[in-house]
Amino acid sequence: MERIVGTVSRGLRAPIIKSGDCLEQIVTDTLLKASVQENFQIRDRDIVAVTESVVARAQGNYASTDAIARDICNKFGNDTIGVIFPILSRNRFSVCLRGIAKGARSGKIVLMLSYPSDEVGNHLIDIDLLDEKGINPWTDVLDEKQYRDLFGYYRHPFTGVDYVDYYKSLVKECGCECEVIFSNNPRSILDYTKSVLACDIHSRKRTRRILKESGAHKVYGLDDILTKPVDGSGYNETYGLLGSNMATEDSVKLFPRDCQQLVENIQKMIRDRTGKTVEVMIYGDGAFKDPVGKIWELADPVVSPGYTSGLEGTPNEVKLKYLADNNFADLHGDELKKAITGFIQNKSKNLVGQMESQGTTPRRLTDLIGSLCDLTSGSGDKGTPIIYIQGYFDNYSQDE
């Protein structure tokens, strides 16, 4: 029978997951119930993915602003703290900033924002204004007055928030003085303080290296804060505050821990109950750009903090459109399908190399699948924190 349907991604509704719940059992039960209700068969090499949010919730991995403040105070003491390159997000950074301000025993924070946007695409200003005003964001350092004189007040197109005012007000609400500057050069902060908290995500290692080489006395990243419990708080030994989300106005849910053990347990439980070996992963933010807001997502330190071995590596694929337009350009219909099917089954290494040069981009399976999962589940009220994907590893040559 000729196969018509390829990859299918399903969002599975689960119970509201709370701290202490057995997530392995919930995921397995939800999948089996869905397969009966929707009349699909569980197959080897299907994929079940669970959002990092419910993993952290089941673990009870939360921390208060007081716990953040305690760790900040322990690390920075009485120093003025330079807080540099935070992303512009109420959900991701506002509670962290409250905790940082609470822990600033000196009573002062110098907040350095990158411009025209943060590293994940949230814009402080329209990039065209830089050219209009003759500003070079790679060399020019602006104070708050210069920034306002040049660009005025800019509200995020989705949230309606002026993040300069918003972040400054959060710091001041905690009884802390806040000086705001704008620069894309990590060294700029050293004119104000030698004690720095680097809040960038994907460029954090480079930022810290530059600061240390340039004479900073203390350099920490968000992944150095809450790497162990503080007064019984949650923690993440690898990522600290990176990947955290607002839980309440005074607490955050941290990125989950022990994800590798969890995915292997889920895989085993499903195999024990079905006889099938499915791949399992935990996913956070995917990577896809919004053309209006310009945000790239990617606010988590990694797309997948845990996945089973079958999801390691990059796709082993050939480019169908290259074959159709070049090697088999004179074929049509069933003859074309037969030729392409035969090529895929035999996979000539020589031609694969040529096709890669024509634009096939190697990306990690977990990054690709995590993006698919994030788009499927969304971040609102769908109630589908479990994603089940079938046919992802199938190709054009395979029929039912």
Describe this structure in words.
This protein has 400 residues and is α/β, with parallel strands linked by helices. The chain has two domains: 8-60 and 257-315 and 362-390, 60s Ribosomal Protein L30, Chain: A, CATH 3.30.1330.100; 62-253, Rossmann fold. Helix content is 36%, strand content 14%. The chain contains 13 helices and 14 strands. The strands form three sheets. It has a six-stranded mixed sheet, sandwiched between helices. It has a five-stranded mixed sheet with strand order 1-14-2-12-13. Helix 8 (204-213) links the parallel strand 8 and strand 9 (218-221). Helix 3 (65-76) crosses helix 4. The longest helix is centred in the middle third of the chain and has 16 residues, at 259-274. Residues 348-359 have low confidence and may be disordered.
What's the number of structural domains?
2
Radius of gyration: 24 Å
Nearest-integer average pLDDT: 89
- Which assembly state applies to the chains in this document? single chain
Number of strands: 14
Instruction: Kindly state the percentage of residues in helix.
Output: 25-40%
Weakly predicted, low-confidence segments: 348-359
Shape: globular
Number of helices: 13
CATH level-3 fold name of the largest domain: Rossmann fold
What spatial order of strands do you see in the largest sheet? 6-7-5-4-8-9
Secondary-structure element order, N to C: EHEHEHEHEHEHHEEHEEEHEEHHHHE
Main sheet summary: 6 strands, mixed
- Percentage of β-strand residues: 5-15%
- Helical/strand content category: alpha/beta
End-to-end CA span: 6 Å
